What we know:
The complex is a heterodimer of chains A (270) and B (335). Chain A has 270 residues and is α+β, with helices and mostly antiparallel strands. Helix content of chain A is 35%, strand content 15%. The model of chain B has no long low-confidence stretch (mean pLDDT 86).
Amino acid sequence: MGGKPTTTNRRQFLKATATAIVSLTVVGSAAYYLRDKSSVQKTGILRPPGSVDEEDFLYACIKCGLCVQICPVHAIKLADWDAFLSYGTPYIDANVQACDFSCDAIQCAETCPTGAIDFQIFRRAGDRAYEQLLKQYGGQIPPDVNPFEIQIMAMRRVANMGKAVITDPQQCLAYHGKGYSGPLGKHHALLRPPGSKERIDIAEVHVEREICDLCVAYCPLGSEAIELKEIGNGKYLPEIKDGCVGCGVCQMLCPTDPKAIVVEPREKLA
Amino acid sequence: MSFIFDWLTGDKSLKPLPPKKKEDLPYVKEGLKFNEWKEKNPNTHKWRNRRWAFLIFINLLFIVSYHMGLGILEGSLSGSRLLGIYLMDPYNSSQELVISSKTGFISHLTTNFWIGFFVILSFYWLVGGRAFCSWVCPYHFFAEWGEKVHDYILKKRKIREKTYDITVKYVFWIGFLVVAFLTQQLVFEDLNPVGILSRSLIYGPGLATIWVALLLAYEIFGIKRFWCRYVCPIGVTYSFVGDLSPLSVKFELDKCAHCRDCQDVCLVPHELWFVKKGAATREVHFTGGDCTKCGLCIDVCYSGALSFGLKDWTTNRWGYKIATKMLKGKQAEQG
């Protein structure tokens, strides 16, 4: 004891080091190989609003789950190993619970410590909207105008999660001129309808529609994102516009099975 | 190379003090036989009980905070927020920094990220680095039990323990950073049992939990504390911090009976190298960065030779080079 380590020690060290380097190479190559499989293009998972490009997201997200905890409607979940290297990263399953923006200030982005869900884009959008408002009213916003609501709409517009698409017009009830009568959702989920202050449980709300327009009526972005268009003979079809950010509320509410309207993640569209 | 070994071995590279004479042993001084003296000073489980209670409390606080919406301790062990103050896993953050400085994402990192990174480093500097392992890490809790089962199996089957060179953990520490840099992925985080287990406890188990179970099984039936001792770079990060930490386990040679029961219970026995008869190179030693401050050795010590204490600056590894040179010079003078 006490003296300098012997050569046996050094040999042992070198042997262990060699093992370590081999295993690190294997793990590293596996990660490199799985990178392609883990991309959103393959897994098709919808990221929370304001997520940075997938290329950056996969390392920027440290998988802490703070976004999961802050979301008031519990829309965000963490992916498992079936999403390969996206394991532990947040996603939204719009079939179960879509992002309805009812937290107002995009709290998942605000809470993210690494900026994987980037709050800066929302802050800038909100600031810009306020400046424009000041300019519009000559520096004095009248008391009947609520700048907060205008800022919130501006923040929603830059969320850019994806875009809704009609999978098959034949599936859509409105396409056949049909109405819808029944619960707003088949399972329990939260939603704050546009213009309302309260969240509702979609399974406990009964709706009656002469022509089914749930995807249009409850869209958090309103008519700038989706509108019901008559295509003749009492037939209708929702038209998705440039204003759609892909929050998934339309997908959550669509009563058909399979869904006539689904959200394609941003990266999958590109 | 020899400098690295010197640095890793610390005080060990000094000339050992002459072995203690029999009449100086504490039980001989009291006029008792070794076994009588042992019975007179029974073991306690004071620190172990405190530690387990704290570990369970912290991990429960994560779970309860989330499920009951208390907002006290949010997130997971990869990154969390305690009463509004962010805390980041230092190795996770290190990988993040390595990759983001390559891609330019570093400017996107929030102020909270930097706060969390430095708060956690400062906190663990204060409480002794690897204290994280034995006082917080949920994997350690299971692995500690696994170690007991492992020891039992080996004793029953009379198999000799297989060990590796523990220095390999530094290779993994650098290696995982290099892999992160090359692949632009937090590769370690996909394997990290601390993060996986923490998330499994808070958000519910998944496929990844199986990996943790397999790892634990390997530690029980294969190599003792395989992950914690030879691989875990989080532990290594904390061990760097612990090297600089003022708090450590203090060893006083004059009280020691060289029974080495402390080394038997120690989770990182190499840190207690100085308890062997004739091994100590100083009158007072402090455990190094690998010490998890678990307190098992303090609980078992019959003579109070081991206690939690504050380090003298010359005894930590970073200050060691100067201190050792000075001491070596002194020893040479004295012949």
